[in-house]
Amino acid sequence: MAHPDFTLSAGPVTVTARTLAGLGSPILYHYDPEFLATFRRTQGKVGQMFQTDNDIILMQGEAIVGLEGALRSLITPGMHVLNLVQGVFGKGTGYWIADFGAVLHEIEVGYDDAVSPAQVEEYLDAHPEIQMVCLVASETPSGTVTDVAAIGPMCRDRGILTYIDTVSGVLGMPWKTDEWGLDLCVAGAQKCLGGPPGVALISVSQKAWDVMYANPAAPRDSYLSLIDWKEKWLGEGRFPYTPSVSDMNGLEAALDQALEEGIDAVVARHEAAAAVTRAGARAMGLELWAKSEEIASACVTSIRLPDDIDNAVVRDHAREVYGVMLSHGQGAGNLVRLSHMGPTAGGLHSVVGLAALGRTLADLGMSVDIGAGLEAALALLSTQRR
Amino acid sequence: MAHPDFTLSAGPVTVTARTLAGLGSPILYHYDPEFLATFRRTQGKVGQMFQTDNDIILMQGEAIVGLEGALRSLITPGMHVLNLVQGVFGKGTGYWIADFGAVLHEIEVGYDDAVSPAQVEEYLDAHPEIQMVCLVASETPSGTVTDVAAIGPMCRDRGILTYIDTVSGVLGMPWKTDEWGLDLCVAGAQKCLGGPPGVALISVSQKAWDVMYANPAAPRDSYLSLIDWKEKWLGEGRFPYTPSVSDMNGLEAALDQALEEGIDAVVARHEAAAAVTRAGARAMGLELWAKSEEIASACVTSIRLPDDIDNAVVRDHAREVYGVMLSHGQGAGNLVRLSHMGPTAGGLHSVVGLAALGRTLADLGMSVDIGAGLEAALALLSTQRR
Amino acid sequence: MAHPDFTLSAGPVTVTARTLAGLGSPILYHYDPEFLATFRRTQGKVGQMFQTDNDIILMQGEAIVGLEGALRSLITPGMHVLNLVQGVFGKGTGYWIADFGAVLHEIEVGYDDAVSPAQVEEYLDAHPEIQMVCLVASETPSGTVTDVAAIGPMCRDRGILTYIDTVSGVLGMPWKTDEWGLDLCVAGAQKCLGGPPGVALISVSQKAWDVMYANPAAPRDSYLSLIDWKEKWLGEGRFPYTPSVSDMNGLEAALDQALEEGIDAVVARHEAAAAVTRAGARAMGLELWAKSEEIASACVTSIRLPDDIDNAVVRDHAREVYGVMLSHGQGAGNLVRLSHMGPTAGGLHSVVGLAALGRTLADLGMSVDIGAGLEAALALLSTQRR
Amino acid sequence: MAHPDFTLSAGPVTVTARTLAGLGSPILYHYDPEFLATFRRTQGKVGQMFQTDNDIILMQGEAIVGLEGALRSLITPGMHVLNLVQGVFGKGTGYWIADFGAVLHEIEVGYDDAVSPAQVEEYLDAHPEIQMVCLVASETPSGTVTDVAAIGPMCRDRGILTYIDTVSGVLGMPWKTDEWGLDLCVAGAQKCLGGPPGVALISVSQKAWDVMYANPAAPRDSYLSLIDWKEKWLGEGRFPYTPSVSDMNGLEAALDQALEEGIDAVVARHEAAAAVTRAGARAMGLELWAKSEEIASACVTSIRLPDDIDNAVVRDHAREVYGVMLSHGQGAGNLVRLSHMGPTAGGLHSVVGLAALGRTLADLGMSVDIGAGLEAALALLSTQRR
């Protein structure tokens, strides 16, 4: 089977030729002065993306290495932790929290819904013992978002630590790490940034460092250790292990493009693409997965499928017959996802996704008004771009 | 400071244009059928490189993620482990072994020497309680090797598990995982293979899996877990986390080139390059770090420096004045390393390294017979290549 | 202005990542044995594409260097030449023929029509003095084709030389150089092949060589000389001038992909894409430029525009507002072209082109049934791909 | 046979990864606004390289297409032209001049010598009928240069037109088109610039345009026509034929690097590399081809071989046994060329070339003091770089 014509998946996403050129540029020794400069510049650019002056750690590995390393570093045995669950990643965070020895508190809602700031506020009022709040800003598997802009400052004001999984959040929503007082954020490069899939982007506040240093269970001399990076790299200029020179080159190229376009413009582009996709899907007669548009993610649009149509079959059919790689639900529910992340957020990419999905569903026997859907998407696009 | 003209470092190493093209090729979704096929093919090719039918695990991250994950998986609390120490990586393995809860036994020699099979045999005879032997096949920081071909079968015949750090060993020396009965081997792609720096290549025998599964301390639901890969990926075809599509493309390209050249030919090329480099260095009046040629690595040639010349200064001077990136000792001793790994193992690359080092040492006031050294290297090269 | 999201232009066309990797691969000396082998292999693959055993000449420059060089080589002063005119390139050929000293005969039809084999037969019957027939197999600017399969053998059987501009013809229609007895064919790499824009691909029969050698006006010691290539390169292995190593690498990569897919499959893919595009355009209420589907090209679909809509405005609007680069008429008439060549021939690329064009025309005030058009295109695509 | 380890040939030369990335970047339509901007920017940068405000024409094809096109445009039948001959390219220019209908005057010296400004002055004094002087600034096949800085102004002051083949001259020597009053200069991208091999870079003064426009024999409506470019592209913004988008991208990348380094710095780097190479060759006991260092080119160093050693054998041996692609004499004499152009001008590249050549000559039975030669080269390099 040949390469797909279009990859509109939930990440890793299609990246630009310039980012690919970064990934394919010559590999230098990691202590070459040129690479040391590249690594430091790239850290700074990640900080700009996060809108923070906090320390930036770039761990080598998929974003989850950062999520695990950071959580292990923060979770002090016996700590009271409130975890917000509205999707599969939030659910998984809860298992880790308990496993790492904390007292787990959870607010859980349906995977098509979002935990509200009011629910959090109420819980925190009733549980003054909470020391940390964990949340997933953007639940990629189901396409819903959490209101970090409200919950973040609420925790900061109460002196509660925040641990934020924003793997697909940053650039897919406004993100103000310092303004919102977020202590520890972990993002992936292979989502809205349109970067390579092998690096975890982490911002760490001084408060978070203090908790880690005081935590006897925090990993040290380990691949999962954030403290190693703080002490060896930030402190002494020695890498705790060899970073991927290629990933750094690809990452910097992706960051350069985002910064040249402007952080706000990138976020707006994702929001516009999501609006076009939702408009098209609704006009096609499809049902959006998210309970309301307010909580629908700007990076993926999840479509609820009828029970008799298997989401994996939809994905495979669109790939095989129309050459478009979509993402199915991966356990979040009987849904299929039209992604609009990175370079595919904008323009006719939404039309491509809608056409592939609409025609696939028609092929599978569902009644879909493809023409109306594509017209609606194009009509909205026409107003956006001029 | 511009890019160096030549990167002759101890890894990450210069890679070929074909490998770079792999790294820079379009990024597919990790569940795209094309990528699933790529991942499985690449596993098979790593198995060919290791000369094994054992399971192959490709963990996302620098090789050390595989070393740590595998050791944590194998080390059962209270287990008796013999660790062979002849360099900084072996020394570090010992710290981990103790830290992870085993009873640590060690044979340690100077970092310019190698633990001999006879020493191991004697120790094992005297300590029947040993359940696992850990060794570093190739100590990259100092450029010495361990006799795995002798020690591996010795352990296998006694029913003792083997854990082998062969990060820079595979392709830099003959490697027969199955013939020698090696249970767990971890290699890096960014050394003799000339691949990307972000992936750990691991072979696991059934015996090693049995030990892990029986080990309550083995990581599960963790980035460090080999069991996750066994159950989810090898078992169910689901990735425990997103692998780096780019790294896999680069890795497969590097493996294709090695397999097309022939595994034995690649090893022979490294050995020939090392011989040329040693001949040149000796004729130049330099002192090899390794006590004997038998234990000198084929992937890096370490040169012992006089006390009054700082190895970091040598490295920086060669980079700045001659545009050649060498590696210094990184804690292993006052040495500098001429590397010949991957695409730079062979031909005039050794002459480039020798010229840069010789002229640098002369610039720093040392008496070096540069002409004699380069002539000797070229004379040997002349006999090899025709 | 940023890069367009989609290039659906009439050539140079979007090329695959594999072809780009070829173009970006290291530059060797043109007498490096590796490059000599590449050049010779590539010649052979061009011959396979042309389906010929004739000599293949690869001239460095846009296809027109081959068209001019070949025509100057063949046109012997006083020669009687019949030129078929159904578009701007055919018209231009006529100017050259006269300018180069031949007696020009022409059959000319409207640029939305095609000269028929019957017209040619009648003319040849009436003019036995004709020594050469010149035709353009595929008029890219207007999107019509000529029936080479009928006219070629007709000329061969009468002993009349044929000079064929097939710049965008080969791979966009069945092509049997030897079976049809075509003497001199010139193709471009940047059209249906999806290759680089800097090389002219030429097949030359022995009969054509005989004419050139007998022609005192044939260029020699000139960039335009085919005889130089025959004598120096094919005869002595010396290049008459330095070929572009990069273009050859890109060309071979493109040829490899076409040959792996299969020549017939590539042609069928172009025909299928054209059928989808035409079905969509008609259902949208647009008027095809070509008088009949039989003479409509499989590489570009030309749409006739109302007089009050300027084709250049359409092109610019689609590019600026929808990020799709289409081609306008370039002098052939008030038309716009949806191209489906190379990698963009197939799948949803036609839907992208139709969506951009349909919405653009709506934006410009034309009444267009976008939904019906896209539905019709998708419905046909659905039957093709399963 | 695999790729060579090092390409130190006389062009096409090794180019940087950044230039390769340019060549391999996505292909846009030639009328895409982005590409139009690229083309115009690149023209401007070529003008900076030439240090001129004259018109810049970028013809698609190897540099010789520019040489031929320009000469055909300038040579008016009956014109008196003085041609300076000191190598094979100058000799060839003379054949063209006569062939194109001019009255040919020549000053010819041995191919290891240079025509002096005094000889030119004397000839011009004696022949007031001369209307144009033609010269080759850098004879690549033999590695000698002509004193353009003296001859150019001498012609300008007498109102004589100048036609300069500077294919390997620009960036390999100081170049002041406007200051020296040079009317028509043709350079190649694949020499000292380290660019792609498929484009001719031409500067044209108003006086040269006037001559062309007045010349009835100047090519028009032809691939060789400069007037077409002037009228269509410079005048109307229409390309006379499709330029190679890939070559332009590669060319701009190469120009950017040269301009970032600084034109004077690039020239100085070539001169320094040539000095190192000559010092090494002499100390090795080899004989330089050029009669004096003053006329030795900074882009290639030609070494005179003994009669019993065939220069083609030397080239093939160095390539096969040492993996270094050198250039042989190509008809200029029994010489071999060590090139130092573009990215290989500088650093240890000269040592690589000298080592390969020295050891090759030793292998072929010649007495060579390799060690002394490499030491001398390194000693000079040591003084240059600090």
From TrEMBL, chains A, B, C, D:
GO terms for molecular function: alanine-glyoxylate transaminase activity; L-serine-pyruvate transaminase activity. InterPro entries: Aminotrans_V_dom (IPR000192), PyrdxlP-dep_Trfase (IPR015424), PyrdxlP-dep_Trfase_major (IPR015421), PyrdxlP-dep_Trfase_small (IPR015422), SP_NH2Trfase/AEP_transaminase (IPR024169). The keyword Transferase applies. It holds the Pfam family Aminotran_5. Signal peptide: none annotated. Residues 29-330 form the Aminotransferase class V domain. Substrate binds at residue 337. GO terms for biological process: glycine biosynthetic process, by transamination of glyoxylate. The keyword Nuclease does not apply. Keywords: Aminotransferase, Pyridoxal phosphate, Pyruvate, Transferase. Its cofactor is pyridoxal 5'-phosphate. The modification N6-(pyridoxal phosphate)lysine is found at residue 191. Belongs to the class-V pyridoxal-phosphate-dependent aminotransferase family. This is Pyridoxamine--pyruvate transaminase. It comes from Herbiconiux ginsengi.
